[in-house]
């Protein structure tokens, strides 16, 4: 029997735990914003280059931050739809000042999970 997919409520803390470093989150915010702007420009101009650029900007900027800053693999590979929604929710929380509460609820990182300095 196939494993049950997590709900958003179950997945988001795991997603956020994979984005603990502010550098990771900042680059995700920039990529997501540029991706949305590119998509809006596509709908205004119907220039297909902006449609192609949209996911390239969003994912292209975000993906490298995981091995570089976090030492992990992007959650997109495990649950693409939940990860996509979580990215926008994380940005929303950041913009509305609600992110700190969620970050404070994360369990501490175990020594075995941290990258060697």
Mean pLDDT: 92
Question: Strand count, sense and closure of the main sheet?
Answer: none
How much of the sequence is in beta strands? Answer: under 5%
- Annotation, overall tally of beta strands: 0
Global Rg: 15 Å
Q: What's the SSE blueprint?
A:
Elements: H1 8-17, H2 22-45, H3 48-62, H4 65-70, H5 80-96, H6 99-104
Summary tags:
single chain, 117 residues, mainly alpha, 0% strand
Report what the structure shows:
The protein starts with 7 loop residues before the first helix and ends in a 13-residue tail after the last helix. Helix 1 (8-17) crosses helix 5 (80-96), helix 2 packs antiparallel against helix 3 (48-62) and helix 2 (22-45) packs across helix 5 (80-96). The chain has 6 helices and no strands. The protein has helices at 8-17, 22-45, 48-62, 65-70, 80-96, 99-104. With 117 residues, it is mainly α.
What's a concise summary of this model?
This protein is an all-alpha fold and 117 residues long.
